[in-house]
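Example S7 (structure tokens).
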């Protein structure tokens, strides 16, 4: 990955003395007012792709069709949680020059590192499950390709997208941002075509409420699909070498742009997730079609109730979501293994291992949407194992130096972790004894 932006040499260099090499931040400024600012944005848009992956399609559509606007508050809360978590992760990479797994490797014992790595691999498998299955469904809906061959094709395309990262971070970021844009355009189009939004219902959905065990499962699934644990590790890697600050002043300026990047990228992801739920609520729940419990059924319902254009936009968004998020997931998996354990294995071999369960699901013809929802619940159980080390690292002045968290930031992050852990425990108790 490129670690700096290259600046053009000055036209009238001083004749005496060695020329001072511009810093990465100075090189960005030299690009001009607009291009320079855009050059400082990007990592959060890569992270945001994981927040609108096929798992989000499954949980948001099922929540909207079964419960209408009841769980709007969960999407809003999850999006705010994601912004805080991703800000801390990105800040940690910027402040330390290391990603979160690398910091854990430095500061934790071998058994702790191994345990964190092992659960992260389970999370990676669950992540691949959602992304591969979703992309395969998208290829099937658009081109009629059977699900198992579509899953194999997804792997090929994901590697091609990931290869852009080897040619420089900017190309990779732009490719991922373009796919995020496709997902956004697809659902904005569907929202406009569907119409019939109940402003009062949306407002009432902002008040936290539940409606039985099924709604609890979806709450945990939505949080797992939004506060993705593997992206907690990834974002610190996206910022650790992207622009090397020369001094504390440059580090503070980069931190300011990092906040803007997180707000834009994660804000866009939150709007897309909310749009998914609003489309399902307005189209299916409103007419009593509460049995729309699969992505295929949602696509079919859009075509029947609205038209082919809406169904096409949905399928394109799903495909773009699956392909981009699977590429990001592969990148995150490499960071986790190398950081925690110091192991390096061929990317193809690693990908073959983590995508095998997804291919088995596709080959056996198991219920795809149910599989996606369950995978997101697994992700929710994995969040504390990434979030707690992040809070500990980012609040430690020995690790962060001058960029250590303020007390209120650490408190807010701790509340987020407590909410997620409490919901996970509630789901276990409700499932076992309910």
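Recovered sequence:
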């Amino acid at each position: 990955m490129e670690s700096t932006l290259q600046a053009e040499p000055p036209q009238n260099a001083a004749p005496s003395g060695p020329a001072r090499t511009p810093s990465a931040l100075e090189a960005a400024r030299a690009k001009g007012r607009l291009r320079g600012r855009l050059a400082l944005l990007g990592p959060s848009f890569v992270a945001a792709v994981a927040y609108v992956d096929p798992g989000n399609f499954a949980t948001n559509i099922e929540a909207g069709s079964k419960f209408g606007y009841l769980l709007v508050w969960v999407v809003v809360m999850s999006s705010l949680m994601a912004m805080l978590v991703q800000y801390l992760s990105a800040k940690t990479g910027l402040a330390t020059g290391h990603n979160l797994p690398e910091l854990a490797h430095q500061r934790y014992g071998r058994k702790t590192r191994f345990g964190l790595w092992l659960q992260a691999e389970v999370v990676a498998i669950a992540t691949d499950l959602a992304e591969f299955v979703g992309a395969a469904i998208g290829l099937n809906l658009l081109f009629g390709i059977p699900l198992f061959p579509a899953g194999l094709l997804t792997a090929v395309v994901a590697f091609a997208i990931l290869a852009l990262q080897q040619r420089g971070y900017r190309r990779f970021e732009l490719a991922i941002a373009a796919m995020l844009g496709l997902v956004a355009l697809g659902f904005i189009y569907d929202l406009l075509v569907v119409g019939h939004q109940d402003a009062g219902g949306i407002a009432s959905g902002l008040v936290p409420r539940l409606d039985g065990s099924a709604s609890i499962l979806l709450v945990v699934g939505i949080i797992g699909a939004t506060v993705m644990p593997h992206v907690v590790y990834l974002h610190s890697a996206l910022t650790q070498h992207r622009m090397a600050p020369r001094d504390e002043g440059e580090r503070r300026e980069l931190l300011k742009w990092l906040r803007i990047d997180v707000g834009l990228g994660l804000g866009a992801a939150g709007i897309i997730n909310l749009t998914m739920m609003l489309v399902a609520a307005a189209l299916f729940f409103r007419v009593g079609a509460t049995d729309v419990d699969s992505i295929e059924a949602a696509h079919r319902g859009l075509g029947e109730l609205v038209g082919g254009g809406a169904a096409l936009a949905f399928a394109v968004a799903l495909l773009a979501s699956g392909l981009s998020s699977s590429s990001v997931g592969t990148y995150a998996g490499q960071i986790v293994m190398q950081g925690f354990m110091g192991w390096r294995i061929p990317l193809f071999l690693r990908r073959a291992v983590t995508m095998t369960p997804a291919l088995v699901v596709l080959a056996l013809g198991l219920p795809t949407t149910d599989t996606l929802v369950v995978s997101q619940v697994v992700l929710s159980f994995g969040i504390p194992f990434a979030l707690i080390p992040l809070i500990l690292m980012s609040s430690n002045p020995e690790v962060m130096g001058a960029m250590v968290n303020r007390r209120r930031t650490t408190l807010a992050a701790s509340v987020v972790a407590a909410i997620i852990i409490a919901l996970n425990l509630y789901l276990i108790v409700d499932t076992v004894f309910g």
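Notes on this example. DSSP finds 19 helices and no strands in the chain.
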